[in-house]
Design a protein that fits this description.
There is one protein chain. With about 190 residues, the chain is of the alpha+beta class. The chain folds into two domains: about 100 residues, Ribosome hibernation promotion factor-like (Double Stranded RNA Binding Domain, 2-Layer Sandwich); about 80 residues, 2-Layer Sandwich (SHC Adaptor Protein), CATH 3.30.505.50. About 25% of the residues lie in helices and about 40% in strands. The strands form three sheets. It has a five-stranded mixed β-sheet. Helix 1 runs parallel beside helix 2. It is globular, with a radius of gyration of 20 Å. It starts with a strand and ends in a 6-residue tail after the last strand.
């Protein structure tokens, strides 16, 4: 597994790097997962020390967590690792059984993603065309090809409010999202005509 352990305005010493590697290997080994690479970033967040971790699994799924501690960088990492452990424990059976048939990693397609200006007063006006939003940033979004169950699991493992994915049954673009009532919503626009 490849590790990228760094700090933003924090010196990450050899002892901390060794601790992080050992704990992550133990956590993922316990659930018999095969992580391909891990990115752990330590930083300051106001008066707290923060740890952000993202681990990519060989199945194509990502596990990510963020935690803070006011005094100790090791404690911030342990809280982050505990969150990842809880996510893996919650999905252990699904991760273990669901991907037995999967022989290749999850496929990803690239899609443009845009950030639009929030203030409508700044939007451009084109005569009869009406108001046009101003693009503030343009990035590329990776859209995975997953089943609906895998998409929900990936969204929850990543702690994201929504996930855009290509449905592996019919190839159409779908969205799963966390609803205000706590349930998960699924948008499947293939029947629109």
């Amino acid at each position: 597994m490849r590790y990228q352990i760094s700090g933003k305005q924090i010196d990450v010493g050899d002892a901390l790097q060794t601790h992080v590697k050992g704990e992550l290997e133990e956590t993922f080994g316990k659930y018999q997962q095969r992580p391909t690479d891990a990115t752990v970033i330590f930083s300051r967040d106001a008066h707290n020390l923060a740890c952000d971790a993202v681990v990519h699994l060989s199945t194509g799924l990502n596990v990510q967590a963020r935690a803070q501690d006011p005094d100790n960088i090791y404690a911030a990492f342990e809280k982050c690792r505990e969150k990842m452990d809880k996510q893996l424990r919650r999905y252990k059976r699904r991760l273990k059984d669901h991907h037995k048939d999967r022989t290749a990693p999850v496929e990803y397609a690239a899609a443009p993603s845009y950030v639009l200006a929030a203030d409508e007063d700044e939007w451009e006006s084109h005569d009869d065309a009406g108001l046009q939003p101003i693009i503030v940033a343009e990035t590329e979004l990776r859209v995975p090809t997953l089943s609906v169950g895998d998409a929900v699991m990936q969204m929850e493992l990543a702690g994201a409010p929504m996930l855009v994915f290509r449905n592996e049954k019919h190839g159409g673009v779908n969205v799963v999202h966390r609803r205000d009532d706590g349930n998960v919503g699924w948008i499947d626009p293939r029947n629109l005509g």
